[in-house]
Amino acid sequence: MRDDKVLASISSAESRRARRIGLRGIERINTPLFLQPCRWVHTFGMKAPLCVLYINNDGEVVKIQELKRNRLPLPVVKARSVLEADTDAARRWNLQVGDIIEIRFAQDARVAS
């Protein structure tokens, strides 16, 4: 959410295993994935490019990256969580570095595996 507007419904990777797998193997990203704790992602094994939003403890977007497949970016020290989405997500949501977003979960939206 931003400014009381819901930007997207998301899933959450709850376990360490789920965070390691992330969106690997997904051909088309329909549902963004929230990873916490997380400061770093890679795109090895991905079938689609990603838009990655790095978020600090205050919900501030500290970095936005568009990553092609098979990339290994540097960790983002200020980040405490990551939102992985399709490549147009940040533009579609009109998000920029410095924006504050709020992550809310419906009880059934978490990925437990």
Give your account of this protein's structure.
- The protein has two helices and six strands; from the N terminus they run βαββββαβ.
- The chain is mainly beta.
- It has a single domain (11-111), classed as Jelly Rolls (Sandwich).
- Strands 4-3-5-2-1-6 form a six-stranded mixed beta sheet.
Strand content: 15-25%
CATH superfamily: Protein of unknown function DUF192
CATH class, named Mainly Beta
Number of domains: 1
Low-confidence stretches: 109-113
Layout: helices, strands, pairs:
Elements: E1 11-13, H1 16-21, E2 33-35, E3 50-55, E4 61-67, E5 81-85, H2 89-92, E6 110-111
Parallel strand pairs: 1-2, 1-6
Antiparallel strand pairs: 2-5, 3-4, 3-5
Quick overview:
With 113 residues, the chain is mostly beta strands.
Q: What would the keywords be for this entry?
A:
113 residues; mainly beta; Jelly Rolls; 6 strands; 9% helix; globular; disordered C terminus
